[in-house]
Amino acid sequence: MAGGQERLLRRRIRSIQSTQKITRAQELIAASRIARAQARVAASQPYSETITEVVRDLAAVGGGGDSPLLNPRAEIRRVGHIVVAADRGLCGAYNSSVIRAAEASIREHAAAGHEYSLVLVGRKAESYFRYRDYDIDAVFTGFSDQPTYEDARRVGAAATDAFLDGRTDLVEVIFTRFVSAGTQEVSRQVLMPLTREEIASTAVAEPGALRAAYEFEPSAEGILELLLPRYVESRVFAALLNAAASEHAARQRAMKAATDNADELITSLTRVMNRARQDAITTEIMEIVGGSEALRQAKQAEQPDERAAHFLRESVPT
User: Fold this and answer.
1) What string of DSSP letters covers 183-229?
2) Can you tell me the distance from the alpha carbon of 146 to that of 248, in angstroms, rounded to the nearest whole number?
3) What would the 3-class secondary structure string for 232-287 be?
4) What angle do CA 196, 43, 25 make, to 5 degrees?
5) What is the pLDDT of residue 65?
6) Does 91 participate in catalysis according to the annotation?
7) Residues 91, 99, 228, 262: which is the catalytic one?
8) How far apart are alpha carbons 65 and 300 in whole angstroms?
9) For residue range 192-212, what is the model confidence (pLDDT) as tens digits?
10) Which of 98, 143, 214, 299 is packed most tightly, with the most Cβ within 10 A?
């Protein structure tokens, strides 16, 4: 029995060691990708800041007065939600945190009498909301860990077309903002309509810096009408890049925790296996000692009979 338990424990330890190799490899891969993802987030900042600055200058001279992207709707009937999650799991609470924030937003708007629309990024978000029979307008998968600007263009176009056609009156993007390798925050931002105050607040300028005077051809309104969709795409791209960096960081932490837990479990099972082996050895020694003692007692019991037989042989006359 003890030997069988030892074999089971040894087999389980080997299985955990195999899993540990996988988790350690995934931890190292995720750690190597975090640096690249951070670099992409930093590299996208100049474009985002420049286009924000240009849009702010155009809005400051009165451009886009009739643009639907700059004018809030008088009545909000339907709210669009762009939910950015991952294509794969094994990243801790990364996906569940974003999904919970999206459901909280849907409930909040439902309490205000607003309908919802979903544009989902990532297979995990798609499987969750589709399984629960949510109304889904568009799904984009296959690029959550390495998004490109073309991916952001497609996601932004799906949300922008619905907003310009009047199918949605407000669009929110829900994603995980990358703060550092150890800190990521779920962020919920209004994407459309854009407010002039929001555009001014997102523009980064040094205090006291002089602003250049521009002349716009053909007109500020025409240029702003062309740039506003690009501005939306740049914000979606920034959200995708932040989400990708956050996914790698969350996966690195989750895989490190899994590797450490495997170490502890292997240590615990090894102790149990050693105790089982010790019990088996002790049992075998006791069986050997017990058998030896039984043989000794049997031999002692036979010796008086032999002496009596010898005495009878000697006492009988021949």
Assistant:
1) EEEEEEEEEESPPHHHHHHH----TTPPPPP---SS-HHHHHHHHHH
2) 10
3) HHHHHHHHHHHHHHHHHHHHHHHHHHHHHHHHHHHHHHHHHHHHHHHHHHHHHHHH
4) 125
5) 59
6) yes
7) 91
8) 116
9) 887 656 565 555 555 555 555
10) 98
